[in-house]
Amino acid sequence: MKYRYLDPKALTRVMNLPLVARGVVEGFIAGLHRSPFHGSSVEFSEYRKYVPGDDLKHLDWKAYGKTEKLYVKLFEEETNLRAHLLLDTSASMGYASSGQVKQDYAAFLAASLAYLMIRQQDTVGLATFDHRIRKVLPPGAGALHLREILTQLEKIQVSETTGIAKPLHDLAEMAKRRGLVILISDLFDDPAEILRGLLHFRHRRHEVIVFNLVDPDERDFPFRGLTVFRDMETGQRLEVLPEAIRGEVRAAFGAFVDTFRKGCAEARIDYVLADTSVPYETLLAAFLTKRARVG
Fold first, then answer.
1. Which residues, in sequence order, are CB contacts of 155 under 8 Å at separation 6+?
2. Is 239 within the bounds of a domain?
3. pLDDT tens digits for range 262-289
4. CA–CA gap between residue 73 and residue 60 (Å, rounded)
5. Are 149 and 172 in a shared domain?
6. Which residues are paired to 271 by β-bridges?
C-alpha cells in the first residue's frame, strides 16, 4: 500500500548516507536506556502486540485467553528507545508561500523519522495537537505500527486554533517513561510558555529535539505594495505597506529564532530551524549527519 508521506525516493537519499541513519538513530539511544540487568536476572518490562516474526516463546498465552489477542512480553534487554513524535496542527501550520504547506512538510519529516526508528527496532508514538491534544498513538514497534502512524498522518487536518504550550505540559505528564521527544511545529505561540513546556519534558529526563518549521515568507517578508494580511488563527485583517515594516518584521523574526535557539541550548535541547523551501530529505540528511558527527 502506498502512503502519501512516505516517499521511497526521498527516503533512499537519506538511507544511502553511509551508516548515518543507523548511527544517528542508535545515537538517540545512547545514554537513554535503563540498565538491562537487575541482580542476576532480566526484568519484565512491558507488553506489545505480536507481529509476524516475533519469537513465539515470548507470547503471553494468559493474555490471549482473556483478550483473544496476541501479545509479546518484552524484557529490559529487548526494550529500546521510546520515541514520541509531537505534531502541531494549529492554523498557522496550513500556510505555504509557493511550495509545500508546513503541515505536509511536518508529516513528511515525521513519517521518515518513524520509519528510521522502527527500522532500528525502537518504539515510536505519535501525538497531534493545537490548543489541546487531538490524537495520541502510544509508542509501538513493527511494520503494522508504522502503518498506523502513516495512516494517522494522512488523517491530519489543520485546526483553526492554537496555543501549544498547554498541550506540551499535558503530553509531558503522559510520557511516563524516559525517552526521546521530537516536536515538529512552527512554534507560533508565546516563546516563554513553549520553552517552559519543553523544559517539562527535560525535567522528566527525556531527550528533546525541536524542528522549528518556517516558510520563507515568514522569514524574508518579501511582499510589495499595499497588502491585506489575515491572521490565520484569529481571522483579524490588517492592511499595510510591507516596505514600511519589512525591517521591523525581519528583526522580530530574528529575535524569535534567537530566543528559541538560546533557550533550547540552555536546556540541552536540539533546535533545528527547518526552512520549508529546503527539501525535507535534504534537511533530515543534514541533521542526521550532524548527529552522527557529534554523537
1. none
2. yes
3. 999 999 999 999 999 999 999 998 988 7
4. 7
5. yes
6. 210
Complete DSSP assignment for 148-169: HHHHHHHH----S----HHHHH
Identify the CA nearest to 45 among candidates 27, 68, 85, 72. Answer: 72
Full residue range of the structural domain in which residue 147 is found: 8-30+81-294
In angstroms, the CA 291 to CA 168 distance is 24
Rounded-to-integer distance, Cα 245 and Cα 62, Å: 68
- pTM beyond 0.85: the answer is no
137 — phi, psi (to 5°)? -110, 110
What distance in Å separates the CA atoms of residue 29 and residue 191, rounded to the nearest whole number?
Answer: 28
Q: What is the mean pLDDT of residues 203-231?
A: 87
- Whether residues 89 and 65 share a domain: the answer is no
Indicate whether 215 and 186 sit together in one domain. Answer: yes
Beta-bridged to residue 84, according to DSSP, are 125, 181
Contacting residues for 103 by C-beta, under 8 A, at least 6 apart: 89, 93, 94, 156, 158
Residue 221's CATH number? 3.40.50.410
Residue 49: strand pairing partners? 71
Of 230, 57, 247, 56, nearest in space to 160 by CA: 230
Those residues whose C-beta lies under 8 Å from the C-beta of residue 232, and which sit 6 or more positions away, are: 91, 92, 94, 95
180 forms beta bridges with 83, 207
